[in-house]
Design goal:
Layout: E1 2-6, E2 14-17, E3 19-20, E4 27-36, H1 39-45, E5 55-56, E6 60-68, E7 80-83, H2 93-96, E8 118-120, E9 123-127, E10 137-141, E11 145-148, H3 154-174, E12 182-186, H4 190-202, E13 206-211, H5 217-222, E14 227-230, H6 236-244, E15 248-253, H7 258-266, E16 268-276, E17 298-301, H8 309-321, E18 331-335, H9 340-349, E19 354-358
Parallel strand pairs: 5-9, 12-13, 12-15, 13-14, 15-16, 16-17, 18-19
Antiparallel strand pairs: 1-2, 1-5, 3-8, 4-6, 4-10, 4-19, 6-7, 7-11, 8-9
Length: 361
């Protein structure tokens, strides 16, 4: 099968022929239909986060089940599925208390004594985040996918698998935004726009979108923002405090930088919560004034929107088909696998929401 392989940090992905195994116990072979080009992949390409190489990248995807191994109970051949990188074991302390996204998923990966799921000419090929969806097929654990209704377009369903679940989930699950509360979202890329959409679904009273590009204003408002601040033109913390007369109840940092993470904390009101969604590069630290904690302000991380994805993703599909979740507007363009490197270049310019690889395109 054709796959996009990362062989060296800082270098473009290479389209190569890679071999994929047959499903073992509790494994599922999926024909990839669509894969979103997510900023998280870029972090690994640029070396901000390490990963054994070579590896097939991609982790935001949807497809059709082709074959299942023994003991698989949750999906069957022909099912349409969304994949999720936060595969879960189902019986650890995190899983049984409803925190599936915190499971380390060790049992969902093949052991060192087993053959790798991906190979190339007999040599092991790294599987990225349990998925490797920049490929024509995926071989994954059944607890890394969920079946969805077949009237859902798979090129939009793919976006739910990471960016949308991360953004919406951070609002609804991680920070538990309540109707009427105030929200600020820093960064209006795919994840940030999903957080804005999630805040609108949750009934937030005021949703302030913040981005360096003034061109994002109309798009942010379309997703539910009530206000827009261009951070290139004004101090976003001062602007938020002025708009809200003291700060927001919830802020969401969807960029992954030290500066914006600190801004997210500073723009919270007394009793407010700053949620760091973005992937801050390894080795970087953030600094916040200790006295601000006396106002019961909190700062916390959010992993994949604190999801329970077998429940959450079918519900998000329903939200889309009912007109509440905006996915069409997130797809900036549909591309073939060969165009994946160009999609990352466009992503770095910050002018698009999402490129989606459509296999057969």
């Amino acid at each position: 099968m054709k796959a996009a392989v990362l062989r060296e940090v800082g270098k473009p992905l290479q389209i190569e022929n890679v071999q994929i195994g047959k499903p073992g116990p509790r494994e599922v072979l999926i024909r990839t239909v669509a894969a979103g080009v997510c900023h998280s992949d870029l972090h690994f390409i640029e070396g901000s986060y390490p990963h054994p190489l070579p590896a097939v990248l991609g982790h935001e995807s949807a497809g059709v089940v082709e074959m299942v191994g023994s003991d698989v109970r949750s999906v069957k051949p022909g099912d349409h599925v969304i994949t999720c990188l936060s595969a879960f074991c189902g019986h650890c302390a995190h899983c049984v208390t409803g925190h599936l996204s915190l499971c380390d998923g060790a049992e969902t990966r093949r052991g060192e004594e087993q053959a790798t799921r991906l190979t190339q000419d007999g040599a092991p090929m790294g599987q990225f985040l349990n998925l490797s969806s920049f490929a024509e097929q995926m071989l994954i654990h059944e607890n890394a996918c969920v079946a969805i209704r077949k009237d859902m377009p798979l090129d939009r369903a793919a976006l739910i698998g990471c960016g949308v679940m991360t953004g919406v989930g951070s609002v609804i699950h991680t920070s538990n935004v309540r109707p009427g509360e105030t929200v600020a979202v820093i960064g209006c890329g795919g994840v940030g726009l999903a957080a804005i959409n999630g805040a609108a679904i949750a009934g937030a009273g005021r949703i302030i979108a913040i981005d360096m590009s003034p061109a994002k204003a109309n798009l942010a408002r379309h997703f539910g923002a009530t206000d827009f601040i261009c951070a290139a033109e004004t101090d976003p913390v001062a602007a938020v405090q002025e708009l809200t007369r003291g700060g927001v109840n919830h802020s969401f940092e969807a960029v992954g930088l030290k500066k914006t993470s600190e801004q997210a904390f500073h723009m919270t009101a007394r009793g407010g919560t700053a949620n760091i969604i973005g992937m801050i590069p390894i080795g970087q630290t953030i600094e916040v004034p200790g006295f601000m904690f006396l106002g019961e302000r909190r700062i916390q991380g959010s992993l994949m929107g604190s999801n329970r994805f077998p429940v959450d993703m079918p519900r998000l599909v329903d939200f889309y088909l009912n007109g509440k979740l905006k996915l069409d507007e997130l797809v900036s363009r549909r591309i073939g696998l060969a165009d994946v490197n160009e999609a990352f270049v466009e992503m770095k310019r910050g002018e698009i929401a999402r490129s989606v690889i459509v296999f057969d395109a």
